[in-house]
Design a protein that fits this description.
Elements lengths: L12 H12 L31 E3 L14 H13 L3 E5 L2 E5 L2 E2 L4 E5 L3 E5 L8 E6 L2 E6 L3 E4 L2 E7 L2 E3 L8 E2 L5 H9 L3 E3 L4 E3 L2 H9 L10 H5 L10 E4 L2 E6 L2 E3 L6 E4 L2 E6 L2 E3 L10 E4 L2 E6 L2 E3 L5 E4 L3 H7 L3 E7 L2 E2 L4 E5 L7 E12 L3 E6 L7 E15 L4 E4 L34 E14 L2 E6 L6 E13 L1 E6 L1 E13 L5 E4 L2 E10 L8 E4 L4 E5 L7 H4 E4 L7 E3 L1
């Protein structure tokens, strides 16, 4: 139930605002999120939040037992149906350990976990039937998600409790990701080994799925074939599909079988004050994957996960393009990410497009890559109008900033892992530009401070369609190697400090219309400041005052001509 008001006298507006805030906040405390909409670079609609009738039911009052053993699936179902029959309300989960099978939400329901409440989903695979689903941007079969809703309106999951997906029962584990003691403990639990004893699966059915397909989307034709590898088809823990007016507030979501939280084709989402956790070794242990959604707020959350933390997607390849639903109008503020493959991520499944995204005031600590854009030939789609600012990153193992249009493949630059310019494969052929060619343009970053252990930043476009109109302003970046730009056009670097330990501060390969102003860097006696490579490099605009002397600090390689540089 979404409450709407007629126009009132200005004298009554403060009182009405107070009432609306109280009604729209199921956790019972007033929240003013006007600040979330401050300094947004695009026309951002106001996100509608849910409100609920003053009805409630406590699952314990219906007979549910919090002993961590009794299966309470029927009591959750009964409580949800009872509130739905009354037009909506709050389903209260009190303190205790509540074992359950799948929970399916209904419209106008607020699933509220009180302090000390732990919903633990049963590890019994038989409770999760095979269903038509969507994973990694494509339609497929998966096991039913532990917590789900489809085609709903006005729903919430709130409170201070914990939702645990028993992911350890589902996930395969690679030996390389565990200590010796952890690996021995895992082997003692049973399971099946693959890849010469280095990859553990919980059951023979799960291992059979891996043999059929080394990826997560087995190329099978019908449900009967999928049933033979059912245990391999791990579900996302929270699946919300085609839902409108959604609030996730205050809860801890942890230990998911695959991705943790996956809103798909949803509108008007508020995601705040969450703790999202997965083991660092968890396969596909993403935190939040927002796919083909619009009008979303993501703020004041903490992530510590096994894969990408905050990730925007919109379908994969032809299915994503045919769906044609971009992820758009998204504000991401005041989030902390600890471990994860990426802190803020776009892709790689972005075939429906991603646009109008604001990311600010976030901290990434120990995240493999901080800001990550990834795609590949075959995806198609347009990613544009992305604004990222006020980001602090520490102890980043790879790059603090990475654009990679060769996700899952090899880029034209540094294919052998070497940092030497001479090792580049400069003869990569451009493909024809088609609807399958991904487009990344109009992406702006400013006020970035980061230290890492790889390159300070990497911008890698496609030879046939370059990264276009990217800017980085007011940044301090430190790492083992410098900034690499390849196959890009219209790049602007302003007030950027690069503290590289080895090699050039800036490497440019087959790129054009690059403007560099007020570049500071760690001068190396054995390396040039800027290395320009490739015969397609042109109109590289450098400032004389940044280099002393300029002709000694600029290196031209692999066909780059003297006319490639324009001095200002």
């Amino acid at each position: 139930m979404i409450t709407r008001f007629r126009k009132l006298s200005p004298a009554l507006l403060p009182f009405v605002a107070l009432v609306i805030s109280s009604c729209n906040n199921p956790t019972g405390s007033l929240q003013n999120n006007d600040w979330v909409y401050d300094n947004i670079e695009f026309d951002m609609p106001r996100v509608i939040e849910p409100s609920f009738p003053d009805n409630e039911v406590n699952i314990a009052d219906l007979g549910a037992i919090a002993d961590g053993q009794t299966l309470n699936t029927d009591y959750f179902t009964k409580a949800i149906e009872l509130m739905a029959a009354k037009g909506g309300g709050k389903v209260i989960v009190p303190s205790g350990i509540w074992m359950t099978g799948p929970i399916v939400l209904k419209s106008n329901i607020n699933l509220h976990l009180e302090d000390g409440a732990l919903i633990r989903f049963s590890p019994d695979f038989e409770l999760y039937p095979l269903v038509e689903s969507n994973f990694e941007g494509k339609n497929t079969y998966r096991c039913q998600s532990p917590l789900s809703g489809n085609g709903l309106e006005n729903i919430a999951i709130t409170g201070k409790g914990v939702i645990d997906g028993s992911g350890e029962a589902w996930r395969p584990v690679k030996k390389s990701k565990l200590t010796e003691g952890q690996w021995k403990k895992l082997l003692n639990s049973g399971g099946v080994l693959e890849d010469e004893g280095t990859y553990w699966f919980p059951s023979e059915k799960a291992a059979a799925g891996y043999r059929v397909s080394r990826g997560n989307l087995p190329p099978l034709q019908n449900q009967d074939e999928f049933m033979k590898i059912k245990d391999f088809l791990r579900p996302v823990m929270v699946s919300l599909v085609n839902c409108k007016v959604v609030l996730l507030d205050g809860v801890t979501f942890q230990n998911s079988p695959a991705w943790n939280i996956h809103p798909l084709l949803c509108e008007d989402l508020s995601i705040r004050n969450l703790t999202v956790r997965n083991p660092w070794y968890s396969q596909n242990g993403d935190g939040l994957d927002l796919e083909s959604c619009k009008n979303a707020l993501i703020y004041n959350n903490n992530f510590d996960v096994g894969d990408d933390a905050i990730c925007l997607k919109s379908g994969k390849d032809k299915q994503g393009r045919d769906r044609g639903r971009a992820t758009e109008n998204v504000i991401i503020k005041n989030n902390i990410v600890y471990h994860g493959h990426g802190g803020f991520v776009v892709g790689s499944e972005m075939s429906g497009g991603v646009r109008n995204v604001h990311v600010s005031d976030c901290t990434f600590m120990g995240t493999n890559v901080g800001i990550r854009f990834k795609s590949a030939r075959g995806r198609g789609g347009v990613v544009e109008n992305i604004y990222i600012s006020n980001i602090n990153m520490t102890d980043i193992p790879a790059e603090p900033i990475r654009f990679n249009m060769f996700y899952g493949g090899q880029a034209p630059m540094l294919e052998d892992g070497s940092s030497s310019i001479e090792s580049q494969n400069k003869d990569k052929l451009a493909f024809s530009v088609t609807e399958e060619t991904p487009v990344f343009r109009n992406i702006h970053l400013k006020n970035i401070v980061a230290n890492g252990f790889g390159k300070v930043a990497v911008f890698i476009g496609l030879p046939e369609l370059k990264l276009e109109n990217l800017s980085l302003e007011n940044a301090v970046l430190s790492g083992y190697e410098g900034f690499v730009i390849t196959d890009a056009s219209g790049i602007k670097l302003k007030n950027v400090k690069i503290f590289q330990k080895n090699g050039p501060a800036l490497t440019i390969f087959n790129s054009k219309d690059i403007e560099v102003e007020n570049l500071n860097f760690n001068e190396q006696s054995d390396a040039s400041a800027v290395a320009i490579s490739g015969k397609e490099s042109s109109n590289i605009m450098l400032n004389n005052t940044d280099f002393k002397p300029g002709d000694k600090q600029i290196q031209l390689l692999n066909g780059a001509g003297n006319t490639a540089v324009v001095w200002k």
